[in-house]
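User: Hello! I'm new to structural biology and keep hearing that structure can be predicted from sequence alone. Could you demonstrate with Outer membrane protein beta-barrel domain-containing protein? Please show me the input and the output so I can see what each looks like.

Assistant: Of course. The first part below is the input, the amino acid sequence of Outer membrane protein beta-barrel domain-containing protein. The second part is the output, the predicted structure written as tokens.
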Amino acid sequence: MKKTMSPLNIKLSLPKVITLATLLAIVPPSFALDLTKGQKILQLGGYLNHSGKTQFIGIEDLIGDRFTVSKHHDGNLLVGLGYLFNHPVKKAIQLSYGINVFYLTKTQVKGQVIQEDLFENLAYKYGLSHVPVYAAAKASIDNPANHYAITFDSGIGFNILTTSSFHEESLDGMTLPDHAFSGHSQVTFSAMAGFGVKMNDVFGHAPLECGYRFFYLGQGKFKKQTNQLLNNLSTGPSYANALICSVVV
């Protein structure tokens, strides 16, 4: 009697599948991966984040509260580390493939709470930070004299989005804050694109590159602290515009 093998219980998270599929898609068949020829890229810059959305939080046996947003935008520093493998296409054109990781330091969202959809008695704020991880591709087009190059970057992967520091305060001096939500880390889909200018031989033979990046960072949620709340507070879609300079280390 033959025994039927049960299927393996393999669980792959969506972000890992996305990253693996992207790496397989962007690397051409002719690209021979030489791990000894990779370049470590250190990146530093600043970014302007956009998050937060007006939403209604239902409360059991009550009407509920409306959370409005008065401050969508906030800025802070970012750092990044990439590891890319070069693949020359033509004399003046080079493609690079690899992994790029960023840390976008904490920014804030602020707003007001309209209790029972009638009384604006509370203000609230919370923090957001991001660690996006990308399967990355870069194209570099050198000028004829090889003094500088125009670069184009793209990446797709996942973002570790962390919500934190939810805080309410009274606007009328009488209403007690609820502090009804707590932050946590979650994984969201993320993508990145940008362009820049690379100046060759700035630090010896190492180039300096400066440019613009756009990040789509996904949407996060807070955890409700009581079952009386019918839904969780959401960050809304988060995205960032950044100016970044990078060097090969």
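User: So the tokens describe the shape?

Assistant: Right, they're a compact way of writing down the 3D structure. Reading them back into a model, for example: The two ends are 62 Å apart (CA to CA).
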